[in-house]
Amino acid sequence: MPAQFAPSRLTQNAVSSFNQSGTKSADSLAFAPLSRKSESVDTKELLRQAMAFNESLAKAEQRWLGQLKVVSQLPTTSPAAKNAGISSDYGTRIDPFTHTLVYHQGIDFSVGHGSPIMATGDGVVSKVDVDRNNGQYLEIEYASGFTTRYAHVSSFSVRTGETVKRGQVIAAVRNTGRSTGTHLHYEIRYQGVSINPLQALTQSSQQLASANPAKPR
Ligand SMILES: [Zn+2]
Predict the structure, then answer these.
(1) What's the fold here for domain 85-210?
(2) Sheet containing 116-118: which strands, arranged edge to edge?
(3) What is the pTM of this model?
(4) How remote is the CA of residue 86 from the centroid of ligand 1, in Å?
């Protein structure tokens, strides 16, 4: 039957009532009000549908929050302040000390003495240390399998084992270690393998960086 000729629920109710009594005309019954029983059934059905919809929304929200958490555990923002330039790129370069060809496993941000350094994702500080090459440095581990290293710094704002959030100030730049000038050396590794940090940087990092003043501990 075409949809435009389908009887309404009201009409169906009226016809049903007519057949039971056998005494009233179909025309007059077509406008009879719904019985209390029908209203009750409809209300229950609407409630059931509303609850099912709410349940569906709650599940979608849980999935979304889960995905947000995964994204927050990726080191995708900049560790340096807004407008910080890159003074040395990732890859093969001439070592400024030995003048031989070496592989630079990070990028260098040209930032002034005391500039704040920010965590680039939600993670845990796995190392705060010092050596001849990196000077004072720290590393952060992420549940996603990434690690990041921030070298030639000082004035650490965090300790080993501390949980950090993306954009949180973790240290300040200082010319420590094997360095020809004040800069931040930044590395990213995925499951121990070095990758180019420029591939992970996003525009939003620049905004985050300028919003977090240094609070050295
Ligand atoms: Zn470097």
Answers:
(1) Glucose Permease (Domain IIA) (2.70.70)
(2) 116-118, 169-173, 153-154
(3) 0.68
(4) 10
